[in-house]
Structures are given as structure tokens and as C-alpha cells.
Design a protein that fits this description.
This protein is α/β, with parallel strands linked by helices. Helix content is 42%, strand content 14%.
């Protein structure tokens, strides 16, 4: 799939034009890309800079796929402002799979990260590739969860492959490739991260996917930019609700007020995308719970809940509640921290 460009002699005129424009910083926004496509085609020569990029791509195992190549992802080509060239390390086949984008804040709660990991793993089990942006917080949690399942995960960079950001996730990126996923960028390998490149890459995150799921986002968040692109592209937008007192809930709640699908579990996601799931991990686990255990699990909040609060909510005796919480903790449903109890398998 796609053209692996080993030397300038193997490149056609359009590929040379696009790469020349990229290296000259003439494709930095939608207007630039439209201006490039509307301009009369010229016949540029492959410069030394282009030669260097192609050698770097060969050394790093990067495929260069232009929008007019047969291997370019069809779903991405259909968006209003598609990238003209993709630099892909890993599986180009993964870019053609049914997929879901999972995005959220870098400043994420432990519960939010656990939920992102769980959802990504279950969606991978259901056959969907999971797409995110490799950022710390929710993005990282989503990639880690997807790696636990059988389907690949895809990350889209806001920089070139040699300037991967954040650098601390380099090992995670390598693992993504080793397990059949892909690292995608529209920037030459030596391009560094800049403020404008991250919002630009978000249109690719949403554009590759059938829908975008937002987990924990501030009122002003890059995740909302991704959701906005998804709406513009005619893709599904979904959000996970959170506690009204948390600033990390405001972005998701705003999306839900504006019509985004409210997501509580994997089945909600698949339903929003038009898929069905016969048995989710949560449903299978819930069947093992007795009435008292389910009662306690339902009483747990989105954040840590104190034991005294759980006593009031459940109406159980201290002894019964302690024993039930212990059983739930041993079964992996509940975590016990310094600030109280919290659900481990879901929010």
C-alpha cells in the first residue's frame, strides 16, 4: 500500500511538488494547501533537501504517501482539507481499518486514564483501530489500552518522526509500530513541534476515524478542536460525562449539550457508530455480581467516594459494606485509595 520512496528518481512530479512545498513551509494551513492545489502545476527538480528527506525516510522505514496515491486512506481523502502527503512509519494497512479516535486532556485524572485504557482495549477487542495523538494523559492511556487488544492503534504526530513529541513516549511509539500499528505525520521527519502544528494534525486524527470520543477536556482544549473537525467532516462526536465540579468535565459536557452522544460504555460507542456488540467486557463482568455488589458499585461516584458516604448511599451495615468492597476490590472492580473508593473497571 502506498509508495515507499527510496530515491528522488522514483518520485513522480506531484510528489516532488508537494515535498518541495512542504520543505519551503508553503503548506502550513488550509489556505496554503488550497492555493497549492489551485496553482498551475510546474515541474520542479528534486533538490538536495528532497534527497536528504528520502534518505531519512528509507533509514527510518517511513512510507511517503501522497493524496493521489492508491494507498492513501479513502476516509481521510474525503475530508474538506486533507493532507497532501503522509509520512507513515509502520502499517499503512492500519490506516484503512474502521477506527475510533479517542482524545482528551494531558492533565487527566486517574479515573479518566483508566476509563480511556479500558475503552480502548474493548474497542480493539471489537475490531476497531484506536487513533490518538501520543500526548500525555488520555492519549497515552488510549494507546496503552489498544495495545492490550488485537487491533492496531494509530498515532498522529504534530511534528516529524525524528522530532517525536513528547520524547518520553518514544518507546510507546516503537511498541505501536511493532504491534502492527502506525505513526503518522504530514511533516518531513526533521520538522519540530510548533504551536500551530498540533491543531492542524487534529483534523487528521478525526479524519481517519469514523468518530471521535472525548474523555476529560477543559472548556478550552485541543480535544474540542478535534471534535470540531469531526463535526465539519461529518463524523460522529461522542463525549464521556464527568463530575460537574471538575474543570476536566466542562469540555465534554459542552459537547453533550450541543448534541454529542453521551458515552458510558463500549456498547454506547458501537451503537453511535452503527455497530453491535454481543457481549462487552463490562456486561460479562456484571453478570458475576450479586445484588449487594451491584448496589455498591452503582453507588460509587466519578471521583473517590468516602466510606461514610457509601454507607449513606447504600444503606448497608458497616460490616456488610466493608466485606462487599473488599470482594469488589479483589475482583478488580474497585480501587481503594487514601481519598476513598473508586470504580476500577469503569468510571
Amino acid at each position: 500500500m502506498g509508495a515507499f520512496l527510496r530515491k528522488p528518481g522514483s518520485m513522480n512530479s506531484f510528489q516532488i511538488r508537494v515535498l518541495s512545498a512542504l520543505l519551503a513551509n508553503r503548506l502550513n494551513n488550509a489556505k496554503d494547501r488550497k492555493r497549492f492545489l489551485d496553482a498551475p502545476p510546474d515541474t520542479p527538480r528534486a533538490s538536495n533537501d528532497i534527497l536528504q528527506v528520502t534518505h531519512t525516510c528509507e533509514r527510518l522505514g517511513i512510507h511517503m504517501i501522497t493524496i493521489n496515491d492508491t494507498g492513501f486512506p479513502t476516509r481521510l481523502a474525503e475530508i474538506p482539507d486533507p493532507p497532501l502527503l503522509l509520512f507513515v512509519r509502520g502499517s499503512t494497512q492500519a490506516l484503512h481499518m474502521d477506527s475510533l479516535a479517542i482524545v482528551g486532556g494531558r492533565e487527566a485524572s486517574g479515573a479518566g486514564q483508566r476509563f480511556a485504557t479500558m475503552m480502548a482495549q474493548q474497542l480493539s477487542d471489537a475490531g476497531l483501530a484506536v487513533i490518538s495523538g501520543l500526548a500525555l494523559g488520555i492519549d497515552t492511556a488510549a494507546h496503552i489500552g489498544a495495545l492490550k487488544g488485537p487491533s492496531p492503534t494509530i498515532t498522529v504526530l504534530g511534528s516529524g518522526h525524528e522530532r517525536l513529541y513528547p520524547a518520553r513516549n518514544a518507546a510507546l511509539a516503537d511498541t505501536i509500530v511493532k504491534q502492527g500499528g502506525a505513526i503518522v505525520s504530514e511533516y518531513p521527519p526533521h520538522f519540530g513541534p510548533t504551536r500551530y502544528r498540533f491543531p492542524e494534525r487534529n483534523r487528521i486524527v478525526s479524519g481517519l476515524a469514523l468518530g471521535t470520543l472525548v474523555i476529560e477536556a477543559r472548556a478550552k482544549s485541543g480535544s474540542l478542536i478535534t471534535a470540531s473537525y469531526a463535526l465539519e467532516q461529518g463524523r460522529e462526536v461522542m463525549a464521556v460525562p464527568g463530575p460537574v465540579s471538575s474543570h476536566l468535565s466542562r469540555g465534554g459536557h459542552a459537547l453533550i449539550r450541543d448534541g454529542a452522544a453521551l458515552i458510558e460504555n463500549t456498547e454506547d460507542v458501537l451503537s453511535a457508530l452503527g455497530f453491535t456488540l454481543e457481549t462487552t467486557q463490562e456486561e460479562t463482568s456484571s453478570e458475576k455480581l450479586d445484588r449487594t455488589q451491584q448496589r455498591v458499585l452503582d453507588a460509587l461516584d466519578f471521583t473517590h467516594t468516602a466510606f461514610d458516604v457509601l454507607l449513606t448511599r447504600t444503606g448497608l451495615s458497616t460490616e456488610t459494606l466493608l466485606q462487599t468492597l473488599l470482594n469488589l476490590e479483589l475482583a478488580g472492580f474497585v480501587e481503594n485509595g487514601a481519598r476513598g473508593y473508586i470504580r476500577a473497571s469503569t468510571y
